[in-house]
Amino acid sequence: MGGQLDVSAYYAAPKDEATKDWVMQQTMFRVKDPKRSLDFYTKVLGMQLITVGDFPQWGFTVFFVGYPPEKDLGPVPENDADKFAYCMKVPGCVELTWNHGSEAEDADRVYNTGNADSTGSKDGEAVKGGFGHIGITVPDVYAACQRFKDMGAEFTKSPNAGGMKGLAFVKDPDGYLVEVLPLGKGFPFPTQDTDCCGVSLSGGEGYADNSKKK
């Protein structure tokens, strides 16, 4: 494990008492159109809108979405003043940042996703970015991906495509990648003979959705 790097010392390192209550709370994406992004994250991925912060004096609004652990935290408060404090207890939120006016730009996508695309590039060449994706875990990857397909989501890798079977990548409306992984399962992941895009276990080179090839 760990390739050429010996990571045993990191596994063995004691928990730092000074950071024991710290939480990885959010990842921020800039989005062109907040409605289409909220529709994707709440309706397709099934996240919940937790709180909204509007800052007209600076020209932006932020929307925090995620999967609140209601068994631990209870439901999202109805009082707007309490929603932000509640949100800061929810791990793994996505902060969708809308810079006012971006929705009026002509291009369908206006932000570079960090995944070697050319959005925002002055010369039109792909940018070698460092960011990759966010990820969600689901009880059944194949059932979740069928849901995503039925709701019009765009795949860059269906569960049976590519070398790693049983996981998928879908794009959000701005092109950011969302990895879909099986909840609580080790590798190799559970598989089915055919996935939602019609790709068989024996097919699917690379990360392309081969069901779209003619």
Automatic annotation (TrEMBL):
Pfam families: Glyoxalase (PF00903). Its EC number is 4.4.1.5. Residues 23-183 form the VOC domain. Its cofactor is Zn(2+). InterPro entries: Glyas_Bleomycin-R_OHBP_Dase, Glyas_Fos-R_dOase_dom, Glyoxalase_1, Glyoxalase_1_CS, VOC_core. Keywords: Lyase, Metal-binding, Zinc. Zn(2+) binds at residues 26, 95, 133, 179. The active site is at residue 179. Transmembrane segments: none annotated. GO terms for molecular function: lactoylglutathione lyase activity; metal ion binding. Binds 1 zinc ion per subunit. In the homodimer, two zinc ions are bound between subunits. Pathway: Secondary metabolite metabolism; methylglyoxal degradation; (R)-lactate from methylglyoxal: step 1/2. Belongs to the glyoxalase I family. PANTHER family: LACTOYLGLUTATHIONE LYASE, LACTOYLGLUTATHIONE LYASE GLYOXALASE I. This is lactoylglutathione lyase. It comes from Spumella elongata.
